[in-house]
Amino acid sequence: MNRKKIYLCAICNVQSGTCNEDCKFCTQSVKYKANIQRYKEKSLDDIIKEAKIAVSNKAIGYCLVTAGAGLDDKKVEFIAKIAKSIKKEISDLNLIACNGIASLDHLKELKKAGINSYNHNLETSKEFYPTICTTHSWEDRYQTCLNIKSANLNLCSGGIFGMGEAQEDRISMLNSIKELNPQSMPINFFHPNDALPLTKNTLDKQEALDLIKLSRETLGKDIMIMVAGGRESTLKDDQYKVFEYGANSIVIGNYLTTNGKIASKELEDLEKLNFDIASTCN
Ligand code: SF4
Predict the structure, then answer these.
(1) pTM here?
(2) N or C end of the chain: which has fewer CB within 10 A?
């Protein structure tokens, strides 16, 4: 029997909890005073050390995430410095930047520095977006996704399910993502936190799995579907069913402000289940 090929990706929160935006699902907004670690810049040594650990756990993508509305010159300089340093040591690691709303010029700078892909999620439907964020618009997000494509970076764009959105919002978001035709789509399940205005994940386990299936049916077979935040808390013992329902990638290790499973243990479990863990992005 053919072994199912899956892709692993790791996240590094290079700037945490310093955002002035008001996304109601996000503990990194300073407005909600969630009890998380907050820092302006993680040290380059730590970022490189974590990249090496990610590679040893078979991650083929490493995502550099900053908190905040978007890129400015200073942030571009910071991410470019990180990208160049990592590429010097691990030249074949696929580097993803996730730094919010971005202009074409800033994205071109990142590409020049060695960034391969840019992650910018639509998060939810155009119609539901004003309910979860008032400080920037869904259209700003969509335009950034277009800029990413114009800069010839691989686009990674997905969203969050379980924030109280209706089924038509989910379908609308999936259709918008399909229109953008990204290389990969991250699916997050809302991870509640008492400090946030949204305190409940509205999905049960089966609904979450069915949404992965719906995403696969909508996007077709070629786009990578990666299950990211909320996998453990929403799916509990059925986490690896994500692959039966159409996902072909997961985030390994910790998330931005919540812990995931210990990466080496996850890898062991995936190997026991006989998955073929990809060694390149193709
Ligand atoms: S812009 Fe990004 S970091 Fe800021 S609150 Fe929204 S999701 Fe969180």
Answers:
(1) 0.95
(2) N
